[in-house]
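Progress report, Aim 2. The chain analyzed during this reporting quarter is listed below.
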Amino acid sequence: MNRAPAGKPAAPAVRTVLGDIAPAALGVCDAHDHLFLRSPQLPGQELDDVEAAAAELSAFRTAGGAAVIQWTPYGMGRRSAELPWLARDSGVRIVAATGLHQAAHYSPELLARVRPDLAGLFVAELTEGIGGTGPRAGMIKVAGGFHGLDRHARHTMAAAAEAQRATGAVIGIHLELGTGTLDVLDLLCGTLAVPPDRVILGHLNRSPDLVVHRTAAEAGAYLAFDGPSRAHHATDWRLPEALAALVEAGFGDRILLGGDTTTAGARSVNGGPGMPYLLRRHRERLEIALGADLVTQFLTANPARAFAADWARAPGGSR
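Predicted structure tokens for the chain:
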């Protein structure tokens, strides 16, 4: 365990499944994706094949990728024990998530078991390790609803806020179809007093509302445009316009890009776009519209800041 000398602030670090690293070492980053994912909402489309995950990481690395943030939360088949060797074997840095998705992704029995101390669960996975013996999570993932927040969402976000205060970890939000952004900010950054720069708003490409995007950026949150895939291609053509508007308003430092591969059929090794698409056709289109320097910033400097935290202040410190 490494702590900063007395009187000196600890340097922020990104918590990967192989340990903490300097933010600048993160490299070209897919800021929202999944190597493993299982849900009753996606029957028969599970991401649970270890060899396919390894092949996808290899393809991503070949395309120029250096880091993947896996947003798969508690109880959705994270396969956390596989992540360290996948990171070592591929040379791709992997950040794992704790947190809880929408109630529909879980059995009532599981929710009844974990709800009484969600914050404790999140803190333990961030500081001690997933399952007590696995790698430590490096972010918290929770979810909103369609144009609103139900009781489950409010409960999980309150737990996430408590865990964030204890650890400094960033909170990533699944916005259902990109909606509910301002409700989330009102709750997390207003009522629950989470610093806005500790919030990442996911799936904003699915609701290309430029007014909401700017309002969220002005609040200080990070904006994730994640999901250039077959499932979301209808919004891809609006993305350059949305990002250009944010850049013009002075918020280029708030933008994150990700792939969000959620089904086996979407993987590149199965004929889909997969993780490499982010750094191939998708990156090419954005560079034509915005310039290579800005797109590189979205893929490197921005995620390095967004996922870094002062882990030395958290229980268990930094190691």
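The radius of gyration is 18 Å. The chain has twelve helices and twelve strands. These observations will guide the mutagenesis work planned for the next reporting period.
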